[in-house]
Amino acid sequence: MTVDRAATASGLAEQVRRDPRWADLERLRSSHRMMDAVIEEVRGRRIRIGDHWLSDFASCNYLGFDLDEEIIGAVDGALRRWGTHPSWSRLLGNPRSYHDIEDQLAELLDAPDVLVLPTITHIHNSVIPILAGQGCVFVESHAHKTIYDGAAIAAGQGARLYRFRSDDGRDVSDLERMLDEVPAGVNRLVCMDGVNSMTGNVPDLAAFVQVTRAHAAVLYVDDAHGFGLIGERGAQETIPYGLRGNGIVRHAGESYDNLVLVGGFSKAYSSLLAFLALPTWLKNHLKVAASPYLYSGPAPTASLATVLAGMQVNAARGDVIRADLHRKTVRVLDTVDALGISTLNRSGLPIVEIPLRRAEDIDGAGEFLFDQGIYVTLAAYPLVSRRDVGFRVQVTAANSDDEIEQLCRALASLNERFELQRALEPAVDRGHLAAEIG
Q1: Do the beta carbons of residue 353 and residue 345 sit within 8 Å?
Q2: C-alpha torsion sign, points 339, 171, 126, 314
Q3: Residue 211's pLDDT band (boundaries 50, 70, 90)?
Q4: Is the separation of the CB atoms in 174 and 165 below 8 Å?
Q5: pLDDT, tens only, 415-433
Q6: Beta strand pairing status for 218-222 and 259-264?
Q7: Which of 137, 170, 247, 248 fits as disulfide partner to 194, beta carbons 3.0 to 4.6 Å?
Q8: Residues with Cβ within 8 Å of residue 144, at least 6 apart in sequence
Q9: Beta 136-140 vs 160-164: how paired, if at all?
Q10: Under 8 Å CB-to-CB from 315, ≥6 apart: which residues?
Q11: Rounded to whole angstroms, how far apart are CA atoms 222 and 103?
């Protein structure tokens, strides 16, 4: 039988292009200056796209470690010691840097043990199926897409997959009802976000810990956007983010019993590496069961060096950096409140999503901000629900005060030109609320 490969490829391409789930995002990707852009140059938190210089509020480098001279200076010596990339599988060999990172990170997190792997996506796709086994895996309905992808792999290997609602991490009743229906002796894994990547909000972790432990379930928390930002509470804290940036478990005052914390260094620490906080027996099991440990190329030397340097900077001046970041974020949120604009952010963390009243305005609103010299993350369907289509602002410590004021002026102008969703209630006191959630 003769196969017309050109016709097959053409048919596949047409089938993919016609998939309605991705139509809006594909249109933006192919035509919008704010999407899939080639960034030619970086100066501080200013970027150049073509001939346009813009203030960058799309970066997730919350602490500004990507531009920190002390951290950058750590790379050269590590490269000369280890080369650009120690390409052993971790099962075969590990540069000392890996063990130093895991030891220091376990102390920072106050965790029983830590395993580092290249990315959070690697972790979700390999570890969720292992923890789920042939049991039940419950995924919070707004959890990150990569969590759901890992759970779908688990379902393909025999687990039963369920989604539960939580009202942005505040309501455990739907999960509790589902767990009640699972027969005794069946493995239960509950997966959810820590700090939500779109709203910036913090779930009521203590309530989820209580429910999962009562049902002998393991709680699996992805705190990609919380690690480095929020941390343990204490009398010395000056902002509601807490101290040390050691993540949502310590922020909530919880332990790691029946809980696996997943986090990464690609956001606040600006390095390519991810981790699990977990018991030592599970760490050792993953060394022979998790594909990234056995087969994936490891993180490059520069990432290992900047993670170690970043932890030193965090210990020495991280709380001062977070206080400055909090100040800048409050300025932006105060502007949003004064304009009467709705935002999903209740926490006061530097992730500020602003939904449009009309989803079809996303193209024009993005172009308007681009022309104002502001670069943001366009939040299109299906990245968010259709009712939440808009854009996300990510404030970083490296944004200057002038850039913050430029953003505030641009938001005021945008508010005059486009229909943004209006705040239906008086502005919340995000600082006090964050403290209550913690």
Answers
A1: yes
A2: positive
A3: very high
A4: yes
A5: 999 999 998 755 555 653 3
A6: parallel
A7: 248
A8: 193, 197, 222, 224
A9: parallel
A10: none
A11: 20
d(CA 419, CA 436): 33
CA distance 276 to 106: 10
For 99-243, where are the E strands, in sequence order? 114-117, 136-140, 160-164, 188-193, 218-222
Question: If DSSP codes are grouped into helix, strand and coil, which group holds residue 271?
Answer: coil
> What percent of the chain is modeled with pLDDT above 70?
92
* Residue pair 58/376 in contact by the 8 Å Cβ criterion: yes
Domains detected in the chain? 19-66+318-437 (3.90.1150.10), 70-314 (3.40.640.10)
At 287, the pLDDT band (50, 70, 90 cuts) reads very high
3-state secondary structure 226-260: CCCCCCECCCCCCCCCCECCCCHHHHCCCCCCCEE
**What is the largest distance, in Å, between two alpha-carbon atoms of the chain?**
76
Tell me which residue of 86, 103, 102 sits closest to 94, measured CA to CA. 86
Give me the residue label for tokens 């001939």: 51
d(CA 63, CA 425): 31
Give the position of tokens 């949502």.
248
The residues with which 394 forms a beta bridge, in sequence order, are 351
* Token pair of 83 as six digits: 């080369």
Question: How buried is 342 (Cβ within 10 angstroms: 0-12 exposed, 13-18 middle, 19+ buried)?
Answer: buried
